[in-house]
Design a protein that fits this description.
Elements: E1 2-13, E2 16-28, E3 33-37, H1 44-51, E4 59-64, E5 67-68, H2 74-84, E6 85-89, H3 100-105, H4 115-128, H5 145-157, E7 163-167, H6 175-190, E8 194-199, H7 202-205, E9 210-215, E10 218-224
Parallel strand pairs: 3-8, 3-9, 6-7, 7-8
Antiparallel strand pairs: 1-2, 1-4, 4-5, 9-10
Bound molecules: adenosine-5'-triphosphate (ATP) and magnesium ion (MG).
Residues 44-45 line the site of magnesium ion.
């Protein structure tokens, strides 16, 4: 599904160029649950932005489902994102003072899908994320952190993406709440979703079936985890 071949990323900051990725290669098959781990500044988010078609590499090749996305235009990247990828971030990025269900249905707004169908899909996504049914019409800013993150996961699922990318999804949660969110990812993976989870915490990475460790823009380790 994901084929990353010798990717580099250089940021141009004024006079100095900084190479955040120095030649990274790996493949991720459909249905895998992979954690990308590494210390702060190692290039995790840079890599996620490329894998998520939010940014393009400076060199190297990225094939997503066989399609070369390394050199697409911004509008072509946006199309790929809409069709294939669901994003979950550390800060939940929900619309405040807006109900849970509307937050989740939002990505469907511009698809031309009728409203009743959008709400059905939103409810299905919320059920998949393990969100409590009696809170669907609560305002998103009146939820706990764990509930907010499950809403964000549901929003990522609502387009039925083949790939879910999560960047530090438990970073703003206490250990117990984070554990529940990670269980949600495990459950989604069991259902066949491909998951790429970015974290700098080993305990979090251990929920995946494979851990790719990056350091200073290079892959240091790529190991399978037996549960
Ligand atoms: N837009 C940018 N312009 C210039 N340098 C950048 C930019 N984004 C990231 N960098 C640099 O690239 C390196 C990798 O950054 P990245 O955000 O990928 O790290 P990370 O592994 O996600 O770290 P963290 O765990 O803190 O989120 C860092 O040294 C950072 O300063
Ligand atoms: Mg980061």
């Amino acid at each position: 599904m994901i084929e990353i071949k010798n990717i580099t990323k250089t940021y141009n900051t004024g006079e100095m160029d900084f190479q955040a990725l120095k030649g990274v290669s790996f493949t991720i098959k459909e249905g895998e649950f992979v954690a990308i781990m590494g210390p702060s500044g190692s290039g995790k988010s840079t890599l996620m932005n490329i894998v998520g078609a939010l940014d393009t590499p400076s060199s190297g090749q990225y094939l997503l489902d066989g399609k070369d996305v390394s050199s697409l235009s911004e509008s072509e990247l946006a199309k790929i994102r809409k069709e294939k990828i669901g994003f979950v971030f550390q800060s939940f990025n929900l619309l405040k003072r807006t109900t849970v269900i509307r937050n989740v249905a939002l990505p469907l707004l511009y698809t031309g899908m009728p409203k009743d169908q959008r709400l059905v899909r939103a409810k299905e996504a919320l059920a998949s994320s393990g969100f409590e049914e009696d809170h669907y019409y609560h305002l998103s800013n009146q939820l706990s952190g764990g509930q907010m993150q499950r809403v964000a996961i549901a929003r990522a699922l609502v387009n039925n993406p083949s790939l879910i990318l999560a960047d530090e999804p438990t970073g703003n949660l206490d250990t117990k709440t984070g554990e529940k969110v990670l269980e949600t990812f495990t459950r989604l993976n069991d259902k066949g979703h491909t998951i790429v989870l970015i974290t700098h915490e080993y305990d979090v990475a251990m929920h995946a079936n494979r851990i790719i460790t990056i350091r200073d823009g290079l892959i240091e380790k790529d190991e399978n985890i037996k549960h």
